[in-house]
Amino acid sequence: MNEHGTEAPDGTSTEAVRLDQGHIEGTGGIPERFTNPGLPAHIHRSADVDEKAARKAEKQVATLFTLSIIGTLVFIVAYFAIDHRTQVFMPGIGLANLQNVVLGVSLAVSLFMIGAGAVHWAKTLMPDEEVVEERHTLRSQDEDRTAAVDTILGGGDQAQLGRRPLIKYTLGGALGLFAVPLVLQVAGGLGPLPGDALSTTFWRKGMKLMRDPEGTPIKATDVTIGSVFHVMPEGIDKSEHVLEEKGKAAVLLMRLDPDDIKVAKERDWGHDGIVAYSKICTHVGCPVGLYEQQTHHLLCPCHQSTFDVTQDCKVIFGPAGRPLPQLKITVDNEGYLVADSPFREAVGPSFWERGS
Asked: Is 283 in contact with 313 (CB distance < 8 Å)?
């Protein structure tokens, strides 16, 4: 194809042949190399050449770190001083928890000011001159390695920490205080310890076992071997704190062949093979709702803690630390299943105040 679109005899375009020949003739067959342009000339900042500008930048960075300190202090004060039940109207949101709003805003200000101060510090005072480091495929000489270590150790001097003590102290204060909210969240962010809140439930002696959510009583004859009932105590819907009480009082009711029950206490606290256990997993409180009829295992779907119903709901797998508490039951004169006593131990997860 010629320069107007025809081919040469060997199938290549005449344009390509001419360009290739010119390339070879001009360079002797070696591609022309570009000269390394190098790094652009370094442009000095005002803080590099004017100590007055440098001190001004130092004060600006210190101010940002100080604002971070103030934000952290506001977080700490609000954590203890603001009632967690106080509500406030937020435009575009509606009612919100005042403590959560103040904690969120103050923590955001604290973190943002640390970042803004670090960026401003880097932009105005830290060295910004570009350098080229030649990389070697082999191990560097000992002198070079020692020089690299010295360079790293001298980073604090290059960042002017020694010359700028105001930045050093405010940065230390900002970062040091910023750890306090994290400690508070770990130590008390989950709220107060349960005390006896999990040791007492709505269950009382003589209360009927009611189907959940139907709210109908259960006769012993209704419970067949292999069946499972989700149960709540009679009258719980009339309690002042319904959801809280339901969360603690949830029970699973099952019937086993009495000969399959291996623990005397479990057999005595049940009725003719019918047993009732707390539905709240003793790991972190998830609802235990999966019953394997053939193995008589209860499974928590959250973290796979597995309880053996034939062994008083002993933990046989998973992270749960103790068996599910058993509710002692009996039957009344009409044959309905009723609680023979409240739970004898705290339901739900283990906690520091819980006795052995």
From this structure: no
